[in-house]
Amino acid sequence: MFIRYRQIAEYNREDTQRVLCINTAAFYLGLVSPLGMLIVASFQDVNAMGIHVLGAAFAFGFGCVYAWMHTYLTYRIHASTQRILDVRFLLSLAATAALIVGILLSRVPC
Fold first, then answer.
1. What are the backbone angles phi and psi of residue 99, rounded to the nearest 5°?
2. Could you write out the DSSP letters of every residue in 17-77?
3. Could you tell me the CA-to-CA distances from 109 to 6, 45, 64, 104 in Å, in that order?
4. Cα separations (Å) of 107 from 21, 40, 66, 110?
5. Following CA atoms 93, 98, 101, 106 in sequence, which dihedral angle do they give, to the nearest 10 degrees?
6. DSSP code of 8?
7. Rg of the Cα trace of the chain?
8. Is the alpha carbon torsion for 78, 79, 85, 88 positive or negative?
9. Residue in 29, 30, 21 with CA at minimum distance from that of residue 1
10. pLDDT tens-digit profile of 68-96?
């Protein structure tokens, strides 16, 4: 995450402030996502279901937002090829679809 953060910062030394703000926000969201994975791993769903679900929401929710932010940044900086942008878009779309399906299936009683 840090390498990608610095890479975008170097590409945009003279660019708009908006790209730099989104890059910084994406970096911090990227740091929160692994924290959610740590919470999920630390609290079993049998013993502490609420904390476990909160950690999963952090991991998958912030991870999905992080993916979309980097898709937007890839589009804005034009430093990558169109193929990389397409792959990022498809991966972000797949992550969003998986997140929505996971939320919908968690509401279905077993």
1. -65, -45
2. HHHHHHHHHHHHHHHHHHHHHHHHHHS-TTT-HHHHHHHHHHHHHHHHHHHHHHHHHHHHH
3. 45, 16, 25, 11
4. 36, 19, 25, 9
5. -150
6. H
7. 16
8. negative
9. 30
10. 999 999 888 876 688 999 999 999 999 99
Q: Which pLDDT value is given to residue 108?
A: 62
Spacing of C-alpha 62 from chain mean position: 5
State the Cα–Cα distance between residues 106 and 95, nearest whole angstrom.
Answer: 16
Report pLDDT digits (tens) over 5-61.
888 888 777 667 888 899 999 999 999 899 999 998 898 777 788 888 888 888 999
The per-residue pLDDT for 104 is: 86
Position of tokens 């502490």? 48
